[in-house]
Amino acid sequence: MKVSVLGYGTVGFGVCSMLEKAPGLELVSVLVRPGKADKPFKVTSIDEIVNDPEVEAVVEVMGGVEPAYSYVSAALAAGKHAVTSNKALVAAHGPELAKLAKEKGVGFLFSAACGGAVPFLHNLALAVESDRILSLGGILNGTTNFMLDSMQRSGMDYADALKEAQALGYAEADPTADVSGLDALRKIMLACAVAYDKLPCEGFSLEGIESVTAADVAHFQSKGLVLRLVVRGGESEDGKLYAFVQPVLLSASSPEASVLKNFNMAKYRGENAGDIVLIGQGAGRYPTASAVVRDLSDIVHGRREMMKPDCVRVAADNSVCECRYYVRLPADLADALPFAEKELDGALCRGVTEALAVTDMHARVKALRAGGAAVFFAAMEE
Amino acid sequence: MKVSVLGYGTVGFGVCSMLEKAPGLELVSVLVRPGKADKPFKVTSIDEIVNDPEVEAVVEVMGGVEPAYSYVSAALAAGKHAVTSNKALVAAHGPELAKLAKEKGVGFLFSAACGGAVPFLHNLALAVESDRILSLGGILNGTTNFMLDSMQRSGMDYADALKEAQALGYAEADPTADVSGLDALRKIMLACAVAYDKLPCEGFSLEGIESVTAADVAHFQSKGLVLRLVVRGGESEDGKLYAFVQPVLLSASSPEASVLKNFNMAKYRGENAGDIVLIGQGAGRYPTASAVVRDLSDIVHGRREMMKPDCVRVAADNSVCECRYYVRLPADLADALPFAEKELDGALCRGVTEALAVTDMHARVKALRAGGAAVFFAAMEE
Q1: Domains contained in chain A, CATH given
Q2: Do B280 and A277 touch (CB under 8 A)?
Q3: ipTM value of the model?
Q4: Of the candidates A18, A38, A40, which has an alpha carbon nearest to the alpha carbon of residue A29?
Q5: Cα distance from A23 to chain B (closest Cα, Å)?
């Protein structure tokens, strides 16, 4: 299959390099920025690629919603398969692209957009054909996992853990999308779309890791607990879709706790298959490129769909899930939440709440923070 | 796709039940033992299935080499796809079946034969198309993992752990294939064939868990180590294939140590993808059936091969791998092995050897046992 790559950054370079060695796949052109076309196979106009009858598939690894959406749409409309690593694109326009691909009889796959090298969406798409997916979850952001792991293994504080992650290239100069949980949320959105044909697009509950302190971590560790930023998604028995991201405190023997450094862990529970856990590198040039190239191989073998053409957008309803929450807040707010147990620690109160709906807890903390309080919270593992 | 199932035991029942609900797949007949054909779709003659032009694929879940080999060969020869969960069959005759399937242009897949629900061979077959597999490994026998986990969590001795596993249906009345490591060995043979187009068929190094005692386990735990029965396979830089099974002592924070109860963990290291770890239920009616049905879906999508038709049989050469070994043996044999460190423990000596070739260590212990000595050994995690 003859392939054109849109974008020549970290992942694009990796894909081009892998295509040189992959039997059955051939690189014919790479879309680069104007002025960067210094080699024969590099082009600067998307039209050259879309109008090239030789190109059978495009790989979009530019990132961002536009012009990626226009380019991928144009390629699909021209009857070319498309593979992307771009979670923002699929979260924003996946259903339209899936529909267009179906109309044109071409493939649209995006494994690399969720979990890097971890073959999560690929296996989920295959499983969903014959099994009912009861729940989805895991650790889908390597940056925050690296930071939390550093804080727990070396007692580092949040700012130093972030600096270390940036120095090693695991965090960007503006780390907001990672540390806020937004990056992980986009990935669970895609996983829900694959598992349930429903792309959640509002009603999210999102808590990142920005509030955790070295003192919090020391406190968890004294209780034998490990902190991870965890995503969860699923469908309740009455068909309500839930999708949320929040810190979770786990026992040291839980599988999530063994996910170290910048690794990702994705899991799903199939009614028949049971729990399936997949672990690997969630980012990086060659890990991400390997997922892109696997999708190309999968298209060669005949696979076309990852998201169904009739996938619809829905609001998430996270009131269907309940958790008990560990909370650290100012001592004078010790009565502001329904604690099942609590203890005073100087000017702070640390406690564990009764079971609360996820939406309820996130809203309560938002209100406390709006009043100026510094609050950290994390769900207790069930 | 219209499917006939050969065998109606634990897994066969599960496959039939899943086929009733799987869109695009339809059960047309089940081969049962003479006298068991009490329902219209049940047949007792393989010829009825092979000669039925309606049947497009067969699922072989009878177990054993014969008559499974004759039946699957006949089905492939008649132009029907074949999916099997039978590791003994594929280990014995995989290359012939792969070649026959290729000649007839039909699919021959066997994910369920290695790791139950864990999608190991499926992902390995896809990865190998565009990535070089540097090594394979993991925990591929749920029975022994359950027993080792019980011994370590409750201080149970070997005999009680085996009884418990048998009572829960995790171990068979004759547990030899599991506890000797043979079952795990067959699985790593299949994984090597998928990854390297070479089916190792002799030269194995095989050590199970039969020699471990409750006192050994207490000793590991006092050092913070966890015992698992681990498989390893791969190809050395000069093209020598290795494949072996032996107990391994791991740190409590290693991913293998978090594999609890009867779960399996499979992993591979891709030159591009990095480490990919897959965890799930390695046996059981519906987990195994789910892998069979995923293979059927994969055939519907166009996949045909898991083992290449030119896969060759080779002898494994485990002299290319070295490990340091933990050993417990009689105190009067304390000089029988090249220990880097050792301590006397009553009538016993416990120590850790210098690095030794896997073949060398297994041969040395065999010789000591031939002399009547009770010896336990396990590789130290690198």
Answers
A1: 322-380 (3.30.70)
A2: yes
A3: 0.93
A4: A40
A5: 7
